[in-house]
Design goal:
The chain is an alpha/beta fold and 259 residues long. The chain folds into two domains: 12-189 and 226-250, Rossmann fold (3-Layer(aba) Sandwich), CATH 3.40.50; 191-223, no CATH class. Helix content is 47%, strand content 15%. The chain has a seven-stranded parallel beta sheet with strand order 3-2-1-4-5-6-7, sandwiched between helices. Helix 3 packs parallel to helix 4 (108-136), helix 4 (108-136) packs parallel to helix 5 (157-177) and helix 6 (195-204) crosses helix 7 (207-217). The chain is globular.
Length: 259
């Protein structure tokens, strides 16, 4: 058990994709560390489960159910941060999808959906969040990219393209707002214990069937937990990272370092 540090105590954070996986793990960690949270996801039932866990542990949160790729969802989330908690300090843009398929057969509408949810949603949230952060005099935005932004495999046409675009968006925001102390960084996870990977393991006949693939791609030989990813996000959100902006942090068990 890692000792609580209060790195984000009293700060207000929006977390998208908070119903499961990295988003949920980070939300629970942020709540433990004293943040006040606006949780966003399309899955209302699972989102409420996250909120219930936080409230049961005496944490503070509100929920916004909606499509993150719509401006009104971003607006509702930012307004909730202001009205419920008095402002906004942190945004963790984490929601995303990963349909796979060869480029020749890939449906145009699926490409558009991936770009809309994985990239446009982050643009919209930043568009609404940054003015409120400027009112506070500072802020931290963390965007979830992926190791697959630069290392990919067949079938991930839209996903890899979207995750590479996130890095470009992150760097542009960082450069544009560096002097005004709104920081923007990206994380690039590798294999993580998320619902999609658990389902993949189940479809292969169990997690032991997946381990050889993980070992081949990720020298650590195991998946990271959502909480482990959350600790990296926690650092980037905290004042301890006040000089860190425009960075891309790999959390991939050495996948990006391997031949």
């Amino acid at each position: 058990m890692v000792e609580k540090t209060g790195r984000v105590a009293g700060k207000v954070a929006i977390i998208t994709g908070a119903a499961s996986g990295i988003g949920k793990g980070t939300a629970l960690l942020f709540a433990e560390e004293g943040a006040k949270l606006v949780l966003v996801d399309w899955n209302e039932a699972n989102l409420q489960m996250t909120a219930n866990e936080i409230r049961a542990a005496q944490g503070s949160c509100v929920t916004i159910t909606g499509d993150v790729s719509r401006l009104e969802t971003a607006d509702r989330a930012v307004q909730a941060a202001i009205h419920e908690f008095g402002g906004l300090d942190i945004v963790f843009n984490n929601a995303g999808i990963m349909p796979i398929g060869d480029i020749v057969d890939y449906p145009e509408e699926t490409w558009d959906e991936v770009m809309r949810i994985n990239v446009k949603a982050m643009f919209l949230m930043c568009k609404k969040a940054i003015p409120e952060m400027l009112k506070r005099g500072r802020g931290s935005i963390i965007n979830t990219s992926s190791v697959m932004a630069s290392l990919t495999e067949p079938g991930y046409t839209a996903y890899t393209s979207s995750k590479a675009a996130i890095i470009g968006l992150t760097k542009e925001i960082a450069v544009s707002y560096a002097e005004r102390e709104v920081r923007c960084n990206a994380i690039c996870p590798g294999w993580v214990e998320t619902d999609i990977n658990v389902k993949l393991a189940d479809s292969m006949g169990g997690i032991e069937k997946l381990y050889p693939i993980i070992k081949q791609q990720q020298p650590s030989g195991r998946m990271a937990t959502p909480r482990e990813i959350g600790y990296a996000v926690l650092f980037l959100a905290s004042d301890e990272a006040s000089a860190v902006t425009g960075s891309v942090l790999s959390i991939d068990g050495a996948a990006s370092a391997a031949i």
